[in-house]
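Protein modeling request. Please complete all fields; requests missing the sequence field cannot be processed.
Requester role: graduate student
Desired output: 3D structure, token encoding
Chains: 1
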Amino acid sequence: MTARDQFDLAVSGADAAAAAGYDDYVNEFLSYGANLRALFAVADANPGAPLLNAHAAALHLAFEGAEGWAYAGPYLEKMRAAEPSGNERERLFCAAVEAWSAKDFHRAMTVLDELTVRWPADLCAVKWGQYHAFNLGDQPALLRLGQRASVVHENAPYAHGMIAFALEQNHRLEEAEDEGMRAAEIAIDDAWAHHAVAHVLETEGRAREGARWMEHCAHTWEKKGVFIRDHNWWHAALFHLALGREAETLEIFDKHLWGAWPEFPQEQIGAVSMLWRLELKGVDVGARWAPVVGEARRRAGEHLFPFHDLHYMYALARAGEDGEAGAFLASMRKHAETLTGEKAHVWGDITVPAAEAIAAFLSGRRADAANALQPILPELHKIGGSHAQRHVFVETFEACANDVRSNMRLP
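Delivered output (411 residues):
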């Protein structure tokens, strides 16, 4: 039994109804829709369809917390059992998800790179490939995969938003803005394109335009999933903060950045990041740290992504509970010692020193924080995250350096 999807690609072990369910998932995934979970029922009804179960596992893994790995387990088992009946493209996707489940993110991206060279029509695989490239801080791969989408999907909804963000992360800002605007013309609800243009405007210091742009787009986000709603409002808050609109920034935090899904790691990271920035600007954030710290505590010890861990570290160090941040830092060091190759370098030589800098910064040892941060800034992209997200480390370094210079001038 083999049906075909909207891109005329085979879906082994699926009938027409299952393929239609898969198409709905692909459309939700590419558009950041709110109904991704519908795929689980489709996969549950089709245990012999390797691709459906691989994508169901991928959705759980993309939660980016330990629960995701646990919930992915049954779908991984069904994927493995059905994989021999799949075609070569499907087996490659299964191999990527298998590597992902083993936390070999480089291998997952490499397999998806190969898959999309051979089947560029598989826009969903392109998007998953970009997901891994982003988390690995591999900007050339992000762009390579994005440009591959245009081979088959010229003028298709959501393809140009993928290209726009990849161009921005590779510092091709004028092209990124053009692609993002084009994407929004093709599909006004392309929230990832809205996001890509926001990155350009933030990078170029065009905060007033940025605030207006995000206000113009915001009405389309209410029907989107939590991640993109939170994250695009995070960008809107950045523009307001840059304009000195502190009250508006706090209002966005309360309405849009915290509380929709507190257990979601991306919501936790966005909240930490915004509170961190607000306090760097001298803003009193009141009691907003307490629930965020509570969720960060539940992530201590997972060590899935360097970028995530550094935000959890900031939350724990900011809470100031005796020995808590030190214990988390010790566990990060221990984790780094278990790794080899590039992973060992990223965790041991970049992430741990960044965590040490955070601890020093929040304990008032500004010179130590500056000394820890300065040598790793050129390689900080390897922890993942975007330029805008990582810029808080630059801001923190600058705050420390300014404090050190001021103290040196004292009589």
